Amino acid sequence: MIISFVKRAVAALILLASSSVFSQNVKKQVQYLSGTDNIHTVTWDFWCTGGRKSGYWTTIQVPSHWEQQGFGAYNYGRDYVTYGKNFRFEEEKGIYKHAFTVPAAWKGKEISIVFEGSMTDTEVKINGKPAGAVHQGSFYRFKYDISDKIRFGQQNRLEVMVSKMSADASVNNAERLADYWIFGGIFRPVYLEAVPKPHIEWTAIDAKADGTFAMNVYLKNAQPGMGVAAQIIDAAGKTVSGFGSAITGKDSLVRLRTTVRSPLLWNAETPNLYTVKLKLKSAAGAPVYETADKFGFRTIEVRKQDGIYVNGVKIKMKGVNRHVWWPETGRCINPRIDLEDVKLIKGMNMNAVRCSHYPPDQSFLRYCDSLGLYVLDELAGWQKAYSTKAGAPLVKEMVKRDANHPSIIFWSNGNEGGHNFDLDDDYGQYDLSKRTVIHAHHRPGNAINGIDCNHYEDYYSTQKILADTNIYMVTEFLHAQDDGGGAAALADFWDLHWNSKKGAGGFIWALVDEGIVRTDLDGRIDVNGVNAPDGLVGPHREKEGSYNAIREIYSPVKITMKTLPEGFNGEIPVENRFHYTNLDQCTYKWELVNFNRPGELATGYKVQQSGTAAAPFIAPVDKGILKLDLPPGWKNYDGLTLSAFDPLKNELYKWVWKVNSSRLVPDSLVVNKVTSEVTASDRDSLLTLKANGISVIFNKNTGKINGLANDFSAKLSFGNGPVLVSGNAIFREIKHYKEGNDYVAEASYSGDMKTVKWTMHPTGWLEMSYEYTLNGSYPFTGISFSYPENFVISAKWLGKGPYRVWKNRLQGVTTGVWQNMNNNTKTGIYPWNYPEFKGYYADVSWIEMNTVEGKFTVAAKESDLFVRLFDFYGLSGARPHPGLPSGDISFLDGIPPIGTKLGLNITANANGYGPSSEQNKVNGPAKRTLYFYFGSPKPSTENKQFTMPKVNVLTDN
């Protein structure tokens, strides 16, 4: 009896001791052999077989691409196109060696070596023995059980041979002969992981919006009598469900089920996450292995001939295509870059991302889970597919790694013809939630599972697809090479999808200009000609004009009011384009502002009063009114701003309206203050008007400004205008006469322009009133002058900015005082110096040109004036832009749209991209009054009006 009791006590102590050991070692233990990312690397021995630094042992940083470490040669995936059919990619191999030790405490555990990504064929040896079969495929996690090859208590030798090109032709076709940079090397981390012999190998979760939870738990070496226990824990740390299952026989799979009452659901607007904790327990109840997964409750439905539903709500994709990229390190990146890219995408008010053309780093998906983006996770297959033999294991690796991310709503089985149909049903073997498989394609008739993803349709063919049978979710559209596409025409496309029953939105190509820092070209960034500058942002995420335009177009608080209407009473029509969020969950702030004046050093505006607006109750997809309670006298200010913030206080967009245009360029600009007498000199073919030291010289044979002079220094080279940019204007004569204190030169024309009346005021301001009449469609309308571009230092203006616009991309610019320095930026090309200086600028009230000859200012009496600055680059094609107006500086009533790389006649004709991409339809007269001051007007401190001091026109006073 006593002996029995002692035996039981000893057994209990042994069990207690073993439980203590278990509790310390029941989780997966990880030891990195490489670094963790492109910042934190580890030095390995290395031998490159070809190209630079080849043929000898040296060292390399891991993870990395060996090209970025100075080895081998650079290859773009389309080099075979560039260099012809006989081109052969460099058959480089990289041989890696690394010594490591293993903790003694790992003895008796299952030890694996894990590669997160290696380009491309990877052969692994441990202590001279093959770890397993050569892995083929670049973007996938793979692992080998090396438990029987490890030497405890001494160094172990890792040898890895990586072949840049695969021995499997289908692997090269799918992921190497592609329209992107291809590299070599171990570009994602390598590590050891140790687990107890009995352990949970992997899991697959299906958590529905109704709270039902199912989970496949895949076991290895589990014994009868063991059990699996699970807990679901919410974001606050509260356990909301506990459940489990016993293991019978030698189960390798256990199915767990439970229900959580009224769970907080996951969607892109409210990305609520839960954690499921799992324990594999011994027959005595001691923990053998512990692991955990994050997940979200959500239900994805494809309702054929209707739409895509998440949690019973129809959603539309506001998406972009993303390559994994950083210019210094290629596809070897770090979690900070992943996080910033998710923020960048959400900053455009997007809700979706396509992981083209391969699965991304795990950290990117985790940020999509936690911050809220719908994800298309894609098997590589750029226009050609993996063979079934090569592709089947890669599908398994991708889905096993990614299946529990709630952000992933579809699997994409390859791109643009790179679809192996035999693999379509493989995804469901590993994905318990059975997500729909799509094909991202560019050929009509390739719809699958009720979803058509056809690429690069124009506006009118899109209308036809939307009227057809399938849901249309376009996986690539509005190709954003250079300054074309992107946001150009997006407003029309987005409204088309939003208002169509079967429209599911789409994914702009692409997020980032894929420019690589060339280690063989002194660090120059190379975008491979026109192949890779496809982004809405530059390689280091420099924002193009399309970025802010998309932000406005996709704002879920949709406001289309362009100007304050007559009798504005604070009521602003609003449409709610959230899918789940009521607008009363958002916040709104207004400001009354005064804009800075010409001659002031400051840009922007000064806030005079501010307040908040009551949030209106407007349900998702409904419309309503946002009411601003503005103070008395609000009309005495220059501008009104309104900012909308989402429930997390992130700014969705800020709108700015002019309140009182007459305050911005008032009539008193030119008539209030007489500073000198205006004189006229008529000699030979020249007519000179002079006031306040400024002389304007007209050619009596052409009616154009022939020159500018003053009493103090050299001439200003502005002139050779006006020229009518569309239509015809045949000069007839010029007459001149005194009119009160002013002097008038009146030019008459035949054709589409009748008269141009020039009035020189005593202040030195020159007034120009003109009228022309056109009937028809025109790329641009208005007048031009000439001025040498190389003389210009900068431009400052009151109007929309700071980015230039196109007729089909007027969004994303707000009213303010902006200043841009002269630059020769070509969008998408080094040095990515944004905003571009040259181009079209919208709703300009005044513009001040700072030049090496001095300053001059042009002001507009009427609104909606476009100003064109010089000759500029828009988009690679037969011409670098749609045809430009004549001259150098133009004052326009209509401007052209921009096309896309994959558009109708490239840049010459964007008409097929919808209403805003058509040419300007004009039927009738256009009248304008412009004011010119060939010097630097100073702002007054009285009533915010311009004063006209007597100044040297060629110096900054």
UniProtKB/TrEMBL annotation:
It holds the Pfam family Glyco_hydro_2_N. It catalyses: Hydrolysis of terminal non-reducing beta-D-galactose residues in beta-D-galactosides. Gene3D superfamilies: 2.70.98.10, Galactose-binding domain-like, Glycosidases, Immunoglobulins. One of its GO terms (biological process) is lactose catabolic process. It is an enzyme of class 3 (hydrolase). Residues 199-298 form the Glycoside hydrolase family 2 immunoglobulin-like beta-sandwich domain. Residues 1-23 form the signal peptide. One of its GO terms (molecular function) is carbohydrate binding. This is Beta-galactosidase. GO terms for cellular component: beta-galactosidase complex. Monomer. Belongs to the glycosyl hydrolase 2 family. Its cofactor is Ca(2+). Residues 301-519 form the Glycoside hydrolase family 2 catalytic domain. Keywords: Calcium, Glycosidase, Hydrolase, Signal. Its EC number is 3.2.1.23.
